[in-house]
């Protein structure tokens, strides 16, 4: 009986292990997890709901959501796609739902449903899960491997490393001749201290445009005001595409926000029209734009130096200009970042030139495989990082089971 060892008890590792065991009952499959618990990223993902994938069903469209790995994933996505992911979970007793923004979640709205599915399938298929088993070293003997851990030494015919962002493992792999692209954070929120955002956490707008000044980085999407600054899909997409550049700036930069994603001249005309139609109404009482919540509108009116008692008829051209600029060209200084909902994602990892993506196998060492975040692949928020994990895990399982 041949042995398949998986280093890392996360999404990619479990998916590969379960599929390998289900495809080949003669294969002994062991997962080695250094921590006390498995599937911890699955647990916290999607705010505890687990955004398992995205309702994007063509490979050429799907790859556009990956700042790193776009070219390499086109072929793999033809092997195992988002629809395959949905079928896999639903055929194993996990009903799914597609939300309005195309994110896909379990109907239960609980990541524990996914964890339970994995644990049950692993148990039924005979996968051994060894927790608190830290990898200290890996040795290669011809085309087989010896994994030295804190608990024991394991011999493997096939070895999958799916340990995510793990400096210890990266050091080991450098000893194997693999090049590691310096990992930097991706998917993070912006720390901003500005009076326009103070005391209104939880306020959001549905479609804002954000750009990093003195840069080509720009994104569009929902924006969320938090206790520490700005978050939401618009910011998270920007952080993913700009991961390397913003790291080089040491997360000290300036952004410009168009809260309406409307042209300045369009907004000023709407405000002038409001001045005529609602001449006797107080400016602060009601937002002109349904996209801007009342509490945020109050902050904007205040920042435009318009008094609480001012009526639209009393608005000077300068005040109209101030309000327009705040709505379409608000500048904010960013001083640092924060991890998004404990979902730590990195850009960086094993150089993709060293991977055979038909098998997710090392080009340098036969029977050594990689899947998930250990590779220099990452995506924007929306279930895309998990899809990379499912695709990689499935292809590895299929490759060793043939």
Number of strands: 22
**Any idea how many domains?**
2
Q: What's the average pLDDT? A: 96
Derived structural class: alpha+beta
Q: Main sheet, how many strands, which sense, barrel?
A: 7 strands, antiparallel
CATH topology of the largest domain: FAD/NAD(P)-binding domain
Structure described in brief:
The chain contains 13 helices and 22 strands. It is an alpha+beta fold.
Please explain how this structure is put together.
The protein has about 400 residues and is α+β, with helices and mostly antiparallel strands. Helix content is about 35%, strand content about 25%. The radius of gyration is 25 Å and the shape is elongated. The protein has helices spanning about 10-25, 40-50, 60, 70-80, 80-90, 110-125, 165-175, 235-240, 245-250, 265-275, 295-305, 315-330, 385-400, and strands spanning about 5, 30, 55, 95-100, 105, 130, 135-140, 145-150, 155, 160, 180-185, 190, 205-210, 220-225, 230, 250-260, 330-335, 335-340, 345-350, 355, 360, 370. The strands form six sheets. The chain has a seven-stranded antiparallel β-sheet. The chain has a five-stranded parallel β-sheet with strand order 6-2-1-10-22, covered by helices on one side. It has a three-stranded antiparallel β-sheet with strand order 3-5-4. A hairpin with a 3-residue loop joins strand 14 (about 220-225) and strand 15 (about 230). It contains 13 helices and 22 strands. It folds into two domains: about 5-185 and about 340-400, FAD/NAD(P)-binding domain, CATH 3.50.50.60; about 190-340, no CATH class.
């Amino acid at each position: 009986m041949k042995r398949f060892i998986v280093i890392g008890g996360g999404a990619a590792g479990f998916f590969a292990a379960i599929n390998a065991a289900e495809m080949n009952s003669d294969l002994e499959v062991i997962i080695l997890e250094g921590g006390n618990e498995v599937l911890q990223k699955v647990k916290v993902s999607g705010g505890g709901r687990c955004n398992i994938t995205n309702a994007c069903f063509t490979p050429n469209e799907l790859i556009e959501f990956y700042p790193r790995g776009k070219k390499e994933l086109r072929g793999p996505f033809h092997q195992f796609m988002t629809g395959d992911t949905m079928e896999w979970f639903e055929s194993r007793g996990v009903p799914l739902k597609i939300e309005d923004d195309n994110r896909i979640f379990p109907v239960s709205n609980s990541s524990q449903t996914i964890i339970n599915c994995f644990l049950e399938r692993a148990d039924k298929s005979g996968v051994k899960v060894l927790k608190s088993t830290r990898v200290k070293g890996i040795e290669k003997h011809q085309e087989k491997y010896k994994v030295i851990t804190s608990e024991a030494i394991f011999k493997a015919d096939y070895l999958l490393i799916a340990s995510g962002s793990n400096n210890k493992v990266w050091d080991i792999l450098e000893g194997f001749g693999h090049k590691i692209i310096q990992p930097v954070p991706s998917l993070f929120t912006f720390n901003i201290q500005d009076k326009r955002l103070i005391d209104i956490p939880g306020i959001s707008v549905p479609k804002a445009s954000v750009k990093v000044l003195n840069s080509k980085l720009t994104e569009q999407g929902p924006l969320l005001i938090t206790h520490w600054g700005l978050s939401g899909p618009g910011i998270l997409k920007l952080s993913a595409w700009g991961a390397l550049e913003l790291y080089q700036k040491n997360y000290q930069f300036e952004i410009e926000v168009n809260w309406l994603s409307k042209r300045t001249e369009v907004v000023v005309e709407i405000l002038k029209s409001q001045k005529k139609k609602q001449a006797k109404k107080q400016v602060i009482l009601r937002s002109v734009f349904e996209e801007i919540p009342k509490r945020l509108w109050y902050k904007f009116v205040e920042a435009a130096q318009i008094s609480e008692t001012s009526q639209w008829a009393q608005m000077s051209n300068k005040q109209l200009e101030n309000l327009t600029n705040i709505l379409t060209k608000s500048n904010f200084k960013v001083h640092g970042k924060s991890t998004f909902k404990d979902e730590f994602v990195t850009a960086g990892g094993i150089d993709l030139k060293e991977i055979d993506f038909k098998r997710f196998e090392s080009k340098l060492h036969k029977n050594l495989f990689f899947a998930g975040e250990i590779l220099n692949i990452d995506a924007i928020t929306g279930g895309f990082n998990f899809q990379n994990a499912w695709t990689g895990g499935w292809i590895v399982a299929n490759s060793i089971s043939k």
